[in-house]
Structure to design on (223 residues):
């Protein structure tokens, strides 16, 4: 069964870079689209962007200037970086698989990242 | 920018039908997905391409999408259906989520 697991620091200082990795198990990352989605505590979902296994990316215009996604096919992982973070970037960060029907059918459990000094 | 609007909350009695709407300009021209999120859990896909149910999702969940409104319908609502529900659609190359609806089963 396909599983996704987020990993990375739970605390990031303001103005620094948030870095998270999603490890895919039970399936190859060499197909489909892989996304990051975040959810501020008690609020709604916000799509950050997706990466195709080839490395091509699409980002949410509201975050494009500060975000980058990358993929490591040898490790079956994809990663997220958010630069110059502020308290507004505090959220649960989910990684998710987008299937051929353009729906998120597999989600990670999410990881809480707090931006604070 | 494109927006999807959902009511913040919907209440329903056990066994009754719950309807959750999602509104957007010409939304009927797009494919809509619906996700269920129970407290402390990750979202779960319950409807995709407006009307299709993934395997494992009960038949009481159904969807529709016409003109400017998509609707998630839950027939014979059960206590376990109490959760937040989010609609989602693509606008050009940007993925949009609705603000979410808290379904309360009273």
């Amino acid at each position: 069964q396909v599983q996704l697991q987020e990993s990375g620091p739970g605390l990031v200082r303001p103005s620094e870079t948030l870095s998270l990795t999603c490890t895919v198990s039970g399936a190859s990352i060499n197909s489909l689209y892989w996304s990051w989605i975040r959810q501020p505590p008690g609020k709604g979902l916000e799509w950050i962007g997706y990466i195709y296994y080839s490395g091509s990316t699409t980002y949410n215009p509201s975050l494009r200037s500060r975000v980058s996604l990358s993929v490591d096919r040898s490790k079956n992982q994809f990663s997220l970086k958010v630069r110059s973070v502020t308290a507004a970037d505090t959220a649960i960060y989910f990684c998710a698989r987008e299937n051929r029907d353009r729906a998120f059918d597999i989600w990670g459990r999410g990881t809480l990242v707090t931006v604070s000094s | 920018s494109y927006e999807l609007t959902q009511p913040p909350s919907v209440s329903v009695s056990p066994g009754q039908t719950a309807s959750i709407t999602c509104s957007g300009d010409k939304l009927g021209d797009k494919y809509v997905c619906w996700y269920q999120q129970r407290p402390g859990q990750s979202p779960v896909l319950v409807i995709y391409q407006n009307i299709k149910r993934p395997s494992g999702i009960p038949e009481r969940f159904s969807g529709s999408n016409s003109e400017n409104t998509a609707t998630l319908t839950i027939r014979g609502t059960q206590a376990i259906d109490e959760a937040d529900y989010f609609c989602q659609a693509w606008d050009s190359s940007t993925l949009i989520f609705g603000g979410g609806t808290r379904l309360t089963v009273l």
